Amino acid sequence: MTTIDPIHVQVLAGVLFSLGLAVVVARRNIFLILMGVELMLNSVNLSFVGFSRTFPGDASLTGHLVPLFTIAIAAAEACIGLAMVICITRGKDTVDADAFSEMKE
């Protein structure tokens, strides 16, 4: 039976975070930007769980509880974010993030 070392989990979390960051920086589609943010949050959750396997005891429980709260917050953020995006795109008829820069004023 093979075991997965914590370094492998951290490398995977780093790759996923980098992919999410690249999507957020490079894309103009607002839905893809939200998906990139979710990918970054999930990579941080993977990192927490990976670290919790290396430290037994109370750290293990904390490493599993923090991602649970993060997932709940991310779900609420996704619902509110998607609702805002849908309302805005109905008025602008586009999902291009540059079209929303006028809202700053």
Question: What features would you describe in this structure?
Answer:
The protein is an all-alpha fold and 105 residues long. The chain has a domain at 29-98. The protein is built from 3 helices and no strands.
Helicity, as a percent range: over 70%
The major sheet is characterized as:
none
- On the 0 to 100 scale, the average pLDDT is 83
Rg, alpha carbons: 17 Å
The secondary-structure class comes to mainly alpha
How many β strands by DSSP? 0
> What's the number of helices?
3
Order of helices and strands: HHH
Spatial separation of the terminal alpha carbons:
60 Å
Q: Stretches where pLDDT falls below 50 for ≥5 residues?
A: none
Features:
77% helix, mainly alpha, 105 residues
What is the topological layout?
Layout: H1 6-26, H2 30-54, H3 58-92
Helix pairs in contact: 1-2, 2-3
Give a brief rundown of this model:
The protein has 105 residues and is mainly α.
